[in-house]
Hints:
- The chain is of the alpha+beta class.
- It has eleven helices and 28 strands.
- It has three domains: 82 residues, 2-Layer Sandwich (Alpha-Beta Plaits), CATH 3.30.70.2980; 258 residues, CATH 3.40.50.200; 130 residues, Jelly Rolls (Sandwich), CATH 2.60.120.
- The strands form six sheets. Strands 7, 8, 9, 10, 11, 13, 24, 25 and 26 form a nine-stranded mixed beta sheet that branches.
- Strand 24 and strand 25 form a beta hairpin.
Amino acid sequence: MFTNKLDPQVQLALRYQQLFNPITLERFTVDGDPNRWEVIAEYVEEISDIQLVMNIEIFYLNNNFATIRINREDVLTLARYPNIAYISFPEEMSYMNIALNQICAANIASPVGPYNLAGRGVLIAVIDTGINYAHPDFIRDDLTSRIRFIWDQTIIGTPPAGFETGTEYTQEQITNAIREPTREAQLIIVPSQDNLGHGTAMAGIAAGNGRGSNRQNLGVAPECELIIVKIGREGGTSARPTDKDVMLGIKYVLNKAREENKPISILLGVGYSLDAHNGEAILERYIDQMSDVWRSNFVVGTGNQANKGSHVRGKLNPNETQVAQFFIDRGQITYACSVWKQFVDVIEIVVESPRGEQTESLSLFTPNRAFIFGNTLLMVNFSLANIGGTRQEIFIWLQADGVAIDSGVWTILLRGVDILIGDYNIWGSIVEDVNSQTRFLEEDPNITLTIPATSRRITSVAAFNSVTLQIAAFSGRGYTALDEIKPDIAAPGVNIITTSIKAETLYEVVTGTSAAAAFVAGAYAVLMEYAILQLGEQYLYGQSLKIYMLRTTRRPVTQAPYPNILWGYGILCVEQTLNSMRDTLIFIAQS
């Protein structure tokens, strides 16, 4: 097979599955059976006839992507079908960890103002860690829930129609639950909980109605309704979801919006780093495709990796050797690096452990290799070109062969063999322990957007400090690896007061690009209320609406020129966007 159809981790698992740890195996095995896998397949035309000759189960995500349950020994056979374009494991993702006048939205809900907008008739979907549905900010004054549906993917029960896992809870069930006098009684009716608080915080910024604070802590769209997807493996033990879970969530919320005939703003609170950062990751292409199926806008933060040492880049010359080093802190269980280069360039690499052990010289002629260095299992994959792809990935996986990976400085030696272009980028895993010093030693803070922020059709949001008017040090930076403009826009993301899951307090302060993204998701809800429901412009959503938002940003002169890798096109300004939409449509009507 001269064209690569298998993700690097699939290739490594086919050869070295017995070396993978249980946490990694849980991500792609079915019900703990190491010989039954669940993969994401990209396909063209029709694949249902494959089920007639193979023992597979297909769940269609759309007309180009599906999840497939398949026996391990049949994966290569599936890849040989001409209408199968690519097969990957679900990619593990991480959650992205001041007032309305900071986004020109303080007066848009005023009954005496020119707009009186609050997200009425529009849905906001939060695909994240779930929600504290009993928080007063998600309850109306008549004690009915503002949440239309919760799909908790992690609870075994009655899944939504057309889906196979998780449990769905309706607005009626949620309302019945919140009227119970104790938390224990509430959880008997609707046992879904947000144990991390991330989804609750984002929902509060985008849509909280302020009932718990005498209307002081208002979200951007306080009268919209919510659809919540708590992502994760059904009955699983891992707190980290995958791109498959997110894709299922996207399909679900779009189905619900279409059934209710309401526009929807979709907020994603997760990201990952190990891909090409060019908009071609499976999740990104899925979002691009699904953005056309209904009146919707997708929003995500740019991630919090700009100051985390997760990226390095360089340019190789023929016969030159360069060094990329990363430090592994104590206690790290797994870590991965993804090297991306132009496929026309031929390079070799050598990986060296902190103790000085070295791999052989690795290249496309040694596509899969595994080594034991001290307490570390090291696996390396060189992949052939994907269909339509011009870039090659070299995947490096470190896993503890004992308590933890050997700490210290690991070294990647890159040697240019036959170089025409020479550019390369290396991205490392997102490390969630805030105290960890795991990082590249000569880091590059640029192109630190997390996936899916480099999707072409999503709105990618950077975070800034509204007090100092400075971009947050952690806020993922652009551009994409193809020099396309990202981030799109900036919003407040430092010390934001929002809804909490904590029993002792209704509100807490959060920081991160997810908080910034929540402002934009709420803004899209009120913009769609105005454009679609008030003005009757049924096609003013998606990219058309995004253009209005980007054109009317605030652009402090001190941060010019725009667009740039920190601020994108500038700072979200909802009122200016509304004014532009109103003036444009008045002009068209009078022409």
